[in-house]
Design brief:
Elements (H helix, E strand, L loop, with lengths): L1 E5 L5 E4 L5 E4 L6 E2 L11 H4 L13 H10 L6 H13 L3 H11 L6 H14 L1
Antiparallel strand pairs: 1-2, 2-3, 3-4
Helix pairs in contact: 2-3, 2-4, 3-5, 4-5
Amino acid sequence: MEVIIELPKGAIVSRASDGTIFITSGARGPRQVETTNPVGLLPVLELGPDSISAAADTLPISEVLSLALTRGTNTDYWPRLAVEWLSRTGVPAEVKTPLEAFAHSDRGSQQTRHAARRLLREAD
């Protein structure tokens, strides 16, 4: 397997020859990442887009961003990181709908929702 990136707290993201993505952390063996629900890749957002530019094409970043914006949680942490990421990279078409849903929801902080609305206005 090819190592793609090291995440915070020592987890390793790797890719098999068939393109399947795995995460290995601690004593646990490699776990396959579901590209439609890449919860294990949320820590990629902690690194920021500049830190993973070489691996960006390999990872399902749009799905990670969408998950961070739509995941049912009361914390502002993942949505804030996703909005900060999008403010640096722009809003891809596939993330626009989840960003709109978040911006007009009652999830996350008011500050993060307003930042999401600004991004949407700038994207139009």
